[in-house]
Each structure stands twice: as C-alpha cells, then as structure tokens.
Amino acid sequence: MSEFMADLEGKCPKTTKFNDFFVKLKDYMASFDSTSPQSKDIQAQLSIKSESLFRAMSAFSGTKGGTSEDSWRLVDGLLSLGKGLIEMNKSGSKDITFEQRKELIQSLVKWTRGIGVFVKMASESEGHPIDLSSFGIDYVPSPSKRSLYETHGTFSLPQYLKDLPQTSKDFESFACNGMLDFMSILEAKCPGTAEFKDFFAKVEDYMTTFKSGSKDIKVEMSDKSEKLFRAMSLLDGGKAGTVESWRMIDGMLSMGKLLAEVKQNGSKDLTFDQRKEVIGTMVKWARAMGLFVKVASEKKGKSIDLSSFGIDYTHYYSTLPLKGPNGEL
C-alpha cells in the first residue's frame, strides 16, 4: 500500500492540495498497522483521521466537495480494506483461509481502484492527465448509471420482461440486473440527499442476501432488514408504519421468496404458471418500491413521475407480455 501511494503521488501535480491529501491518506491507513502503538485505540483514531482526510478530499474542485461518485468510491474502498485488515489482526497468527484471502484481495483491488480513480479525476480537474495503466488494474471509470439515466434514457419494466428467460437457472441474474437498473433510474429521480443514498444502498445490500448462498441467510436478513427499516423510517418522517412502508416490505419479501423458490428448480424450464408468478412478483416489487420513493420524495418537496417505468401505479397492470403454454401472447 505504501509503494502504491508513493508511486501514485509521483504522478500527481506537485501542489499543496495533493501533498495534504496523501499525507492524510497515509496517516489514515497507518491506523490499521498492528505494530503501531495507536492501533489499540483504532476507532478513536479513525474518527479523527477520517474527518481530516475528507477535508483534504473536499479541497479538490473536481470532486464537488467530496460528494462525487469518485469520492464515494474512494470512501467505500477505504472502509472495505479497513474492515478486512481489522479482521486479519483479530486472527492473530492463524493461517488465512481461502475465503479470507479472496476477500482481502478483492478489498485491496477495490481500495487501489477507488484511490486511483479519485486521484485521476482530481488531477485532470487541475489540467494534469494521469495514466494509471502501469498499476495493472482496470481504472476506466464506468459512468454512474444515475448520470447515464439522467442524460440518455429510461427503463421500462414491461419492455425488460419481454426477455424473461426460459430456465430457472437464468432467472436470478435476470431479476437482479432488472432490479438494479430499476433502482438506478428511480434514484436518479430523487433528491440527492444522504437519506436517499443510504436508503438505496440498504435496499441493494438487502437484495444481495437472496443470492449469497450463505448458510446464515436468516441471520443476515435479520440484520440487513433492520438497517433497511431504519433507512426507510428516515425517509418516512419517522412514521415507519405507513401504508407505503408495509407495501414495500411485502414486495421485498415476495421477491426474496420467489428467488429462493426458482433457485430450487435448478436448470428446469419455467412453467407458464411460474412465468406468470415471476412477472407478477417483479411488478409488485417495482410498484411498491416506486410508490414508497415517490411519497418520500414528495415529502422533501420534489415530485416524481413514475410513468416512464411502464407500470400502472393506480390499478393492477394487466397488459405485461406473457406467453402461454403454446407460445401465444
């Protein structure tokens, strides 16, 4: 990590802002060094150092005060690697398991990419382009779906469902990709506040539980559902028992149950009744999510138009594409 940060700093403009950023970044990462006398008080140190680092990040005009996609990617990478290093320290001298090695490698890649892209964008905003190819990691920053949707287009659920797969084994990725696309454009319509960002992050985290394959899925769901419910309550004005809230919870549970049932079918073809249930459940989930966000957004003074999703949010949508046993619509 020290070599990476030193090499990266060498590519940057020699300015006070970049010098301060790397000083704060190195100081933050030093907190995870198990040989450091400060490591015993790591939480208190991290609180102070993370605030200093964030101020250093915010000094760059190209990062929009630390709230850009690149800034959040860097923060995510720091937290991911920090968590991994803390867990490694707790293991003491024990051998690292295969799963731990895999997770640590992924965290390191995420960390280096997050820092690399942030620095690249910050440097280019200062008129100094940086080539990151020498680090051997794909640093091509993919534009956020939010910005793409704001600029170029929309997402229609009926149109998406026309490509509903024939077999059970292909449904999980199809459903998850569709849900992520739906949430991306829905988030793009919302106020860009911390509460909405947190809500969508918790929804996505909750939905990943259904494809994790974890033996402790019930424990994971309990923890993640509690976090999601708290995020919902903040948007709901503290009224966690509204109709919109319970409708959304029902939609989430229905989708989770469906994904579990379809997975049990293995590679079998989806029957007509199963395809009908799949479509109905995805519509139920999307409608519940849309209505909850619409009401929450309007409480913040921003009206949302959900018509682009192609779903009737007032009455049950009965014209979705659905093929019968003989292929008829």
Automatic annotation (TrEMBL):
Protein name as it appears in the record: DUF1216 domain-containing protein
Lineage of source species: Eukaryota, Viridiplantae, Streptophyta, Embryophyta, Tracheophyta
